[in-house]
Design goal:
Structural class: alpha/beta
Strand order of the largest sheet: 8-9-10-13-14-15-16-20
Distance between the termini: 26 Å
Shape: elongated
Largest sheet: 8 strands, parallel, barrel
């Protein structure tokens, strides 16, 4: 989950309640017109039902241009507002009659709590409004951001009230208030208006991620920053960066500069990405995969390459019987924990090639010997590999991180058990000895959904992979569909924390950065819709696609 920065309010509860109440009570009848779904303004002459009275003008003519005797103007009437159209869709909207709200020059964004200054400045700049800080007075057109005292509520929840030409967005934490500003931004896109009424909204799942393989393919810092802005507007809250693999190590290192690829991100660039992500309530989830997928590290340290009994090197695999192997990986884990301050970490753990052969002990006698030395005569190579994973978890745990591991990094029948706090990143049911997701869930593990059947965008479409379509995700997937196309029982829903759409760059030159951005556009939107609300969407795919095109 993103770090919500649950900042404790500095004012007394009674003072805040009075302030928010006064702001809402002071909402008068505004003059803006709410645009209906077809684009015509509700309450305008064009939008009134046949027989509605004309509105008299100051020149004594009716709106139809005919002369009339001076008389009081009739009260303007408004159609009942409709639920706003956003991505992801809001969970609930209470309609009302009124003008709605749209941005205009001179309107203010104000806060009832100074902790919301960052969110307020951002939305003010996006909508062309003036940020005026912490204010208690009420003016026409105000957008007010406030923290409420709803203890125990989801920190990503929010309420948005549009009434009398003003907007109030409140939530129990700044993350929820931020998501309210994303809803407002989408509502007024292209000159439309936020409809009158009250939105109450919160996500179904606390982890809503996008994972990017920057190890096999170099992505520029500016491209990643653009994705962060896109993810923030869509209410994603995680960006996974897989930056170490056989093809490259893509972030500057001070402890081991010899492993870094020529094309890489500097630490200054990464810091800027991290700060931008934090401003959008997105946690960066770094991944240094081990003990497999370490080819770039091994290239600079060939003595650490795993070799079989015949001396043949095993691609990407580090020799976990050597103490030096653990030392270099722990050096890197400690170094990058300082660069990525978020609460989440990915340990990898998948596809260790020593465990894909028929007889690991015979093929890799040095691993078998190390296993019996560490765990007694019954120790196995799988025990040794699980012990390696637990050792790296100890290193990361010292930095107070919550850790996840690919599902094929957990093994059956081992005397050494994976640490209890390791979460399962379930991506495939195709590994050797594949296990159903329920095997992890019934053991009490928390699980994240990376289902490669729906959520894997693999460049070049190697093996059996095909580029996922947003329509298939939108119509057939939900967070309980962890493996292939089958749902796990509903009783496990709370253990499924969310999921991630993933870009893997196996054939890196198959697409440019721009092609990747275009290719993942609709799958990202479909994924977050189902993580925010896994129920069958109200819009058809055709309607959803048209909405995405309109919102940009």
């Amino acid at each position: 989950m993103s770090e919500h920065r649950r900042r404790a309010p500095q004012k007394k509860v009674r003072q805040r309640a009075l302030l928010i109440g006064a702001a809402i009570a002071a909402f008068g009848a505004g003059l803006g017109l709410w645009a209906s779904d077809d684009g015509s303004p509700a309450g305008s002459a064009a939008g009134q039902a046949s027989g509605s009275p004309s509105v008299a003008t100051s020149s004594g003519e009716t709106s139809a241009g005919r002369a009339s005797s001076p008389s009081p103007s009739p009260t303007r009437t408004y159609a009942l507002s409709r639920t706003p159209r956003t991505i992801p869709a809001v969970r609930a909207h209470t309609p009302a009659r009124g003008p709605g709200w749209r941005p205009a020059s001179g309107y203010r964004v104000v806060v009832s709590d100074s902790e919301l200054a960052d969110e307020a400045r951002l939305v003010a700049g996006e909508l062309g409004l003036t940020y005026e800080g912490e204010k208690s007075d009420v003016r026409a057109g105000d957008v007010r951001l406030a923290l409420n005292d709803d203890e125990g509520a989801d920190p990503e929840s929010y309420a948005m009230t549009v009434r009398g030409g003003r907007v109030t967005i409140s939530g129990p934490a700044d993350a929820g208030v931020f998501y309210g500003t994303r809803t407002l931004k989408q509502e007024v896109h292209g000159g439309a208006a936020a409809p009158e009424g009250v939105v109450r909204d919160e996500p179904a799942k606390p982890r809503r991620g996008f994972m990017l393989d920057i190890a096999r393919k170099h992505f520029t810092a500016s491209w990643i920053e653009d994705r962060v802005r896109e993810l923030g507007d869509l209410k994603f809250n995680e960006l996974g960066l897989h930056f170490s693999d056989d093809q490259g190590f893509r972030i500057q290192s001070t402890t081991h500069p010899e492993i870094v690829s020529q094309q890489h991100l500097t630490k200054a660039e990464v810091t800027k990405i991290v700060q931008l992500a934090e401003s959008r309530h997105i946690t960066i989830v770094p991944e240094i995969d081990s003990p497999g997928h370490l080819g770039a590290v091994i290239a600079a340290h060939p003595d650490l390459q795993l070799r079989n009994a015949q001396g043949v090197a095993t691609r990407g695999a580090i020799d976990i019987s050597k103490d030096e192997s653990a030392t270099i990986v722990d050096d890197l884990l400690d170094e990058y924990a300082g660069l990525f301050p978020g609460s989440q970490w990915h340990l990898g753990g998948d596809e260790y090639q020593a465990l894909t052969v028929a007889n690991p002990a015979a093929s890799y006698p040095q691993l078998a010997a190390a296993a019996t030395d560490a765990y007694g005569p019954s120790g196995t190579v799988a025990d040794l590999t699980t012990g390696w994973l637990n050792g790296r978890a100890d290193t990361v745990r010292a930095h107070d991180r919550t850790m996840r591991v690919w599902n094929d990094g957990f093994f059956r029948g081992t005397s050494v058990q994976p640490a209890e706090d390791l979460q399962v990143a379930y991506w495939t049911g195709k590994e050797i000895g594949a296990r159903e997701p329920t095997e992890y869930l019934s053991a009490g593990r928390k699980v994240l959904n990376y289902n490669d059947e729906f959520l894997y965008y693999v460049l070049g479409q190697p093996q059996t992979f095909v580029y996922p379509t947003g329509q298939r995700i939108y119509e057939q997937w939900n967070p309980r569909v962890l493996r292939k196309t089958a749902e796990v029982p509903a009783r496990y829903d709370d253990q499924i924390l969310g999921g991630s759409f993933a870009v893997w760059c196996d054939l890196a030159n198959s697409q440019t950065q721009e092609q990747v951005a275009a290719g993942i556009r609709m799958p990202l939107r479909a994924t977050v819709q189902k993580l925010w609300d896994p129920r069958t969407p109200a819009l058809s795919w055709t309607e959803f696609k048209a909405l995405a095109a309109r919102l940009g």
